[in-house]
Write a structure and sequence with these properties.
By secondary structure, the chain is an alpha+beta fold. The protein contains 6 helices and 14 strands. It is 28% helix and 33% strand.
Length: 265
Protein backbone atom coordinates (compact mmCIF):
# COMPACT_ATOMS: atom_id res chain seq x y z
CA UNK A 1 0.00 0.00 0.00
CA UNK A 2 1.06 3.63 -0.46
CA UNK A 3 2.96 5.60 2.15
CA UNK A 4 0.05 8.04 2.31
CA UNK A 5 -3.67 7.41 2.24
CA UNK A 6 -5.22 8.53 -1.02
CA UNK A 7 -7.72 11.36 -0.95
CA UNK A 8 -11.23 10.81 -2.26
CA UNK A 9 -10.45 12.91 -5.35
CA UNK A 10 -7.36 10.80 -6.10
CA UNK A 11 -9.45 7.65 -5.79
CA UNK A 12 -12.09 9.09 -8.12
CA UNK A 13 -9.35 9.97 -10.62
CA UNK A 14 -7.93 6.42 -10.54
CA UNK A 15 -11.40 4.89 -10.88
CA UNK A 16 -12.21 7.14 -13.84
CA UNK A 17 -8.89 6.30 -15.48
CA UNK A 18 -9.68 2.57 -15.16
CA UNK A 19 -13.17 3.13 -16.60
CA UNK A 20 -11.56 4.88 -19.58
CA UNK A 21 -9.14 1.96 -20.04
CA UNK A 22 -6.14 4.27 -19.63
CA UNK A 23 -4.63 3.69 -16.19
CA UNK A 24 -2.52 6.31 -14.42
CA UNK A 25 0.73 4.58 -15.43
CA UNK A 26 -0.37 4.36 -19.06
CA UNK A 27 -1.43 0.70 -19.04
CA UNK A 28 -4.71 -0.63 -20.37
CA UNK A 29 -6.88 -2.61 -17.93
CA UNK A 30 -5.50 -5.94 -19.10
CA UNK A 31 -1.80 -5.00 -19.22
CA UNK A 32 0.56 -6.47 -16.64
CA UNK A 33 3.88 -4.89 -15.72
CA UNK A 34 7.06 -6.71 -16.65
CA UNK A 35 7.87 -9.52 -14.30
CA UNK A 36 11.61 -9.94 -13.90
CA UNK A 37 12.90 -13.43 -13.14
CA UNK A 38 16.40 -14.78 -12.50
CA UNK A 39 17.20 -18.44 -11.90
CA UNK A 40 19.99 -20.62 -10.53
CA UNK A 41 20.86 -18.27 -7.67
CA UNK A 42 21.27 -20.72 -4.77
CA UNK A 43 24.18 -23.09 -5.33
CA UNK A 44 23.21 -25.91 -2.95
CA UNK A 45 19.57 -26.12 -4.12
CA UNK A 46 18.11 -28.34 -6.86
CA UNK A 47 16.61 -25.20 -8.39
CA UNK A 48 15.92 -21.58 -7.52
CA UNK A 49 14.38 -18.42 -8.93
CA UNK A 50 13.91 -14.84 -7.81
CA UNK A 51 11.03 -12.82 -9.18
CA UNK A 52 10.47 -9.08 -8.98
CA UNK A 53 7.10 -7.49 -9.67
CA UNK A 54 7.28 -3.75 -9.04
CA UNK A 55 8.50 -3.55 -5.41
CA UNK A 56 7.65 -7.14 -4.51
CA UNK A 57 10.54 -9.62 -4.56
CA UNK A 58 10.17 -13.34 -3.89
CA UNK A 59 12.85 -16.05 -3.85
CA UNK A 60 11.87 -19.70 -4.40
CA UNK A 61 14.28 -22.53 -3.51
CA UNK A 62 13.69 -26.20 -4.35
CA UNK A 63 15.18 -28.99 -2.21
CA UNK A 64 14.69 -32.68 -2.99
CA UNK A 65 14.51 -35.40 -0.37
CA UNK A 66 13.68 -39.09 -0.55
CA UNK A 67 10.26 -39.99 0.87
CA UNK A 68 7.80 -42.89 1.11
CA UNK A 69 4.67 -42.51 -1.01
CA UNK A 70 1.13 -43.82 -0.82
CA UNK A 71 -1.67 -44.23 -3.36
CA UNK A 72 -2.72 -40.59 -3.70
CA UNK A 73 0.82 -39.35 -4.35
CA UNK A 74 1.72 -42.30 -6.56
CA UNK A 75 4.71 -40.67 -8.31
CA UNK A 76 6.15 -38.24 -5.82
CA UNK A 77 5.33 -35.16 -3.82
CA UNK A 78 5.72 -31.43 -3.96
CA UNK A 79 5.14 -29.18 -0.96
CA UNK A 80 5.31 -25.44 -0.36
CA UNK A 81 6.15 -23.08 2.47
CA UNK A 82 6.04 -19.28 2.55
CA UNK A 83 8.11 -17.18 4.92
CA UNK A 84 8.81 -13.53 5.17
CA UNK A 85 12.17 -11.83 5.65
CA UNK A 86 12.48 -9.43 8.57
CA UNK A 87 12.65 -6.44 6.22
CA UNK A 88 9.35 -7.20 4.52
CA UNK A 89 7.56 -8.38 7.61
CA UNK A 90 5.82 -5.13 8.75
CA UNK A 91 3.93 -4.96 5.44
CA UNK A 92 3.43 -8.72 5.40
CA UNK A 93 1.96 -8.66 8.93
CA UNK A 94 -0.35 -5.78 7.99
CA UNK A 95 -1.63 -7.88 5.12
CA UNK A 96 -2.37 -10.81 7.40
CA UNK A 97 0.99 -12.53 7.91
CA UNK A 98 0.52 -16.21 8.67
CA UNK A 99 -3.02 -16.27 7.31
CA UNK A 100 -1.76 -14.80 4.03
CA UNK A 101 1.09 -17.32 3.89
CA UNK A 102 -1.27 -20.25 4.36
CA UNK A 103 -3.62 -18.89 1.66
CA UNK A 104 -0.70 -18.65 -0.79
CA UNK A 105 0.33 -22.25 0.07
CA UNK A 106 -3.27 -23.43 -0.56
CA UNK A 107 -3.30 -21.76 -3.97
CA UNK A 108 0.12 -23.22 -4.91
CA UNK A 109 -0.95 -26.71 -3.75
CA UNK A 110 -3.99 -26.50 -5.99
CA UNK A 111 -1.91 -25.29 -8.95
CA UNK A 112 0.66 -28.06 -8.45
CA UNK A 113 -1.99 -30.67 -9.21
CA UNK A 114 -1.46 -29.77 -12.87
CA UNK A 115 2.14 -31.04 -12.74
CA UNK A 116 3.25 -34.47 -13.92
CA UNK A 117 5.31 -35.85 -11.02
CA UNK A 118 6.39 -39.06 -12.82
CA UNK A 119 10.07 -37.92 -12.91
CA UNK A 120 10.04 -37.98 -9.08
CA UNK A 121 9.33 -41.70 -8.89
CA UNK A 122 12.26 -43.88 -7.78
CA UNK A 123 11.11 -47.45 -7.11
CA UNK A 124 8.43 -49.35 -5.17
CA UNK A 125 7.02 -46.89 -2.63
CA UNK A 126 10.06 -44.62 -2.72
CA UNK A 127 10.11 -41.28 -4.52
CA UNK A 128 11.48 -37.76 -4.36
CA UNK A 129 9.66 -35.04 -2.51
CA UNK A 130 10.37 -31.51 -3.70
CA UNK A 131 10.12 -28.91 -0.95
CA UNK A 132 9.66 -25.47 -2.46
CA UNK A 133 10.45 -22.78 0.09
CA UNK A 134 9.40 -19.24 -0.74
CA UNK A 135 10.98 -16.25 0.95
CA UNK A 136 9.27 -12.88 0.58
CA UNK A 137 12.16 -10.37 0.48
CA UNK A 138 10.16 -7.24 -0.33
CA UNK A 139 6.44 -6.78 -0.27
CA UNK A 140 5.25 -3.55 -1.88
CA UNK A 141 3.25 -2.62 -4.94
CA UNK A 142 3.28 -5.99 -6.70
CA UNK A 143 0.77 -8.74 -6.11
CA UNK A 144 2.21 -11.36 -3.77
CA UNK A 145 0.17 -14.30 -5.10
CA UNK A 146 1.29 -13.65 -8.68
CA UNK A 147 4.92 -13.15 -7.67
CA UNK A 148 4.99 -16.37 -5.58
CA UNK A 149 3.43 -18.44 -8.39
CA UNK A 150 5.89 -17.03 -10.94
CA UNK A 151 8.82 -17.75 -8.59
CA UNK A 152 7.66 -21.37 -8.21
CA UNK A 153 7.35 -21.77 -11.97
CA UNK A 154 10.84 -20.31 -12.51
CA UNK A 155 12.38 -22.46 -9.78
CA UNK A 156 10.79 -25.64 -11.16
CA UNK A 157 12.10 -24.79 -14.63
CA UNK A 158 15.57 -24.54 -13.06
CA UNK A 159 15.21 -27.74 -11.00
CA UNK A 160 17.43 -30.76 -11.57
CA UNK A 161 16.11 -33.84 -9.81
CA UNK A 162 19.03 -36.19 -9.04
CA UNK A 163 19.16 -39.38 -11.13
CA UNK A 164 19.12 -42.67 -9.21
CA UNK A 165 20.28 -46.19 -9.99
CA UNK A 166 18.03 -48.94 -8.71
CA UNK A 167 19.22 -52.47 -7.82
CA UNK A 168 17.29 -55.53 -6.60
CA UNK A 169 13.97 -56.82 -7.92
CA UNK A 170 11.80 -56.35 -4.83
CA UNK A 171 11.11 -60.09 -4.68
CA UNK A 172 14.30 -62.12 -4.14
CA UNK A 173 16.45 -59.15 -3.29
CA UNK A 174 15.10 -55.96 -1.72
CA UNK A 175 15.02 -52.80 -3.78
CA UNK A 176 17.95 -50.55 -3.22
CA UNK A 177 18.94 -47.34 -4.92
CA UNK A 178 21.84 -44.99 -5.08
CA UNK A 179 21.91 -41.35 -6.11
CA UNK A 180 24.08 -40.98 -9.20
CA UNK A 181 27.00 -38.71 -8.35
CA UNK A 182 27.42 -37.40 -11.91
CA UNK A 183 25.96 -33.84 -11.82
CA UNK A 184 25.25 -34.03 -15.56
CA UNK A 185 22.74 -36.84 -15.01
CA UNK A 186 19.43 -35.56 -13.73
CA UNK A 187 15.69 -35.53 -14.38
CA UNK A 188 13.48 -32.56 -15.12
CA UNK A 189 9.92 -31.70 -14.25
CA UNK A 190 7.88 -30.11 -17.05
CA UNK A 191 7.44 -26.67 -15.45
CA UNK A 192 5.29 -25.46 -18.35
CA UNK A 193 2.47 -27.53 -16.84
CA UNK A 194 2.50 -25.31 -13.74
CA UNK A 195 -0.33 -22.79 -14.34
CA UNK A 196 0.02 -19.02 -14.58
CA UNK A 197 -1.63 -17.00 -11.82
CA UNK A 198 -3.37 -13.69 -12.50
CA UNK A 199 -4.82 -11.47 -9.79
CA UNK A 200 -7.48 -8.99 -10.88
CA UNK A 201 -8.56 -6.01 -8.79
CA UNK A 202 -12.15 -4.76 -9.03
CA UNK A 203 -12.15 -0.98 -9.41
CA UNK A 204 -15.51 0.63 -10.07
CA UNK A 205 -17.26 -1.54 -12.64
CA UNK A 206 -14.09 -3.07 -14.09
CA UNK A 207 -11.27 -5.48 -13.36
CA UNK A 208 -7.61 -4.56 -13.81
CA UNK A 209 -4.69 -6.96 -14.12
CA UNK A 210 -1.65 -6.47 -11.86
CA UNK A 211 -2.94 -3.49 -9.85
CA UNK A 212 -0.45 -0.84 -8.73
CA UNK A 213 -0.22 0.10 -5.03
CA UNK A 214 -2.51 3.09 -5.56
CA UNK A 215 -5.01 1.04 -7.52
CA UNK A 216 -5.06 -1.57 -4.74
CA UNK A 217 -6.33 1.07 -2.30
CA UNK A 218 -9.30 1.73 -4.63
CA UNK A 219 -10.19 -1.94 -5.12
CA UNK A 220 -13.46 -3.28 -3.75
CA UNK A 221 -12.34 -6.88 -4.19
CA UNK A 222 -10.01 -9.26 -5.99
CA UNK A 223 -10.23 -12.27 -8.23
CA UNK A 224 -7.33 -14.75 -8.24
CA UNK A 225 -7.39 -17.00 -11.32
CA UNK A 226 -4.97 -19.80 -12.27
CA UNK A 227 -4.82 -20.73 -15.95
CA UNK A 228 -3.17 -23.84 -17.38
CA UNK A 229 -0.83 -23.86 -20.35
CA UNK A 230 -3.76 -24.99 -22.53
CA UNK A 231 -5.91 -22.10 -21.32
CA UNK A 232 -8.04 -24.07 -18.85
CA UNK A 233 -9.05 -22.26 -15.67
CA UNK A 234 -7.91 -24.46 -12.77
CA UNK A 235 -8.64 -22.15 -9.85
CA UNK A 236 -10.80 -19.11 -9.10
CA UNK A 237 -10.71 -17.36 -5.73
CA UNK A 238 -12.73 -14.32 -4.84
CA UNK A 239 -11.51 -11.97 -2.11
CA UNK A 240 -12.96 -8.87 -0.65
CA UNK A 241 -16.14 -6.93 -0.39
CA UNK A 242 -19.34 -7.11 -2.31
CA UNK A 243 -21.11 -9.74 -4.34
CA UNK A 244 -20.17 -10.04 -8.01
CA UNK A 245 -22.78 -10.70 -10.66
CA UNK A 246 -22.27 -13.88 -12.66
CA UNK A 247 -21.64 -11.72 -15.74
CA UNK A 248 -18.90 -9.77 -13.94
CA UNK A 249 -17.34 -13.00 -12.67
CA UNK A 250 -17.30 -14.52 -16.16
CA UNK A 251 -15.85 -11.30 -17.59
CA UNK A 252 -13.10 -11.40 -14.98
CA UNK A 253 -12.26 -15.04 -15.71
CA UNK A 254 -12.14 -14.32 -19.46
CA UNK A 255 -9.88 -11.33 -18.82
CA UNK A 256 -7.58 -13.39 -16.58
CA UNK A 257 -7.30 -16.09 -19.26
CA UNK A 258 -6.21 -13.52 -21.83
CA UNK A 259 -3.67 -11.99 -19.45
CA UNK A 260 -2.31 -15.43 -18.48
CA UNK A 261 -1.87 -16.49 -22.10
CA UNK A 262 -0.09 -13.19 -22.83
CA UNK A 263 2.23 -13.66 -19.85
CA UNK A 264 2.98 -17.31 -20.63
CA UNK A 265 3.77 -16.69 -24.29
Amino acid sequence: SSMFALSQSEKSYITAAVAGNMRCDGRARNDARTLESRTNLVSNAAGSAQVQLDGTIVLAVVKPEVTQITGDTANGRISFSVECSAGASPVFERRGGEQLASEIVQVLDRMARSLDLQPLFIVGTTAWQLSVDLLVLECSGGNLFDACAAAVKGALADTRVPEVEVSGDGVNTPFDFEVVSNPHKFRRIDSKLFPTLVTLARIGQHFVVDASADEETCASGRLVVAVSEKGDVVLVRKDGAGPLSVAALLDGIHQAREAAMARAS
